[in-house]
Amino acid sequence: MKRRSLALRSAQPKTGLLTRQDRPRSDAASARQTLGLVEPRSTADAEGHPQSATCPAKYLQCETPVRTEWSWYEAGTLKIATFNINNINKRLHNLMAWLAKAQPDVVCLQELKAEQEAFPASALGDLGYRGVWLGERSWNGVAILARDCDPVLTRSSLPGNPSDRQARYIEAAVNGVLITSIYLPNGNPQPGPKFDYKLAWFERLIEHGAELMKAGVPVVLAGDYNVVPTAQDIYPTRSLDNNALIQPQSRQAYARLLAQGWTDSLRKLQHEGPLWTFWDYERNRWPLDKGMRLDHFLLSPTVCDRLVDGGVDRWVRGEVNASDHAPAWIMLDR
Hints:
Deoxyribonuclease I, Chain A, disordered N terminus
């Protein structure tokens, strides 16, 4: 075990050093032609400046994986999790404890609330996780971690608005699957500019989703969507009728994304009943179990049939210093 950790510390991916000014951008359809090419991946020159290089299909497999029994826990499956950590450095202990217990193969994080240089790569490396991330001071921030291998960065911004600098989208290839970490805007208060931005961002995601669907590659759109898809995805209440999370426009946008052919994986596994992933800090909503479902995995048709299990690690929300979200996860056949 100790030998493995030393190897991981010496192999931190340079893609994590991506700067906000040099995010790779390219057309999704041409870049992902049936796994022949993925988008340019970020590398760095001798001085640490990001460069771009064509990334062939072989990079959809892990680079330099560590082949150990621990690395391939539960042989034949790939466990993917999404977790809005709500400040990664403030809740690093919580994150590390969950990682050690749950041992997901891939983790999509949102709301890092940390600048690029403040991401705790070394601590996560001690547990065997390497990553790509996009930080932002005080707000937002997204990351993708992979256990015992390097996720290959394919995109670090959502196309459609080059002037949008908020750190809300990152995409990487891991073990033959293209995986996203999405932090969709909250949109409150509504109506207003924040809600307009939410809907505009959703439109860009729908357009990008169509491109990914057209490419025909295995894709998992994971993250915090900040939308409650249906009435059964929130506890019974009228107090949130004006909240942006449950507005008809938000739900319609989510439904339009699904209509492209994506599968809402947790609802495929559990058709009815509560699947809460978020409980507000206010008004005792966690002790009273007044939650909602905001964190989703949307699967492309090429990966949907590989879904074998999934759930929510609710216990994490009950820990001291917890995020207001709990990690959700799915298991895919390799």
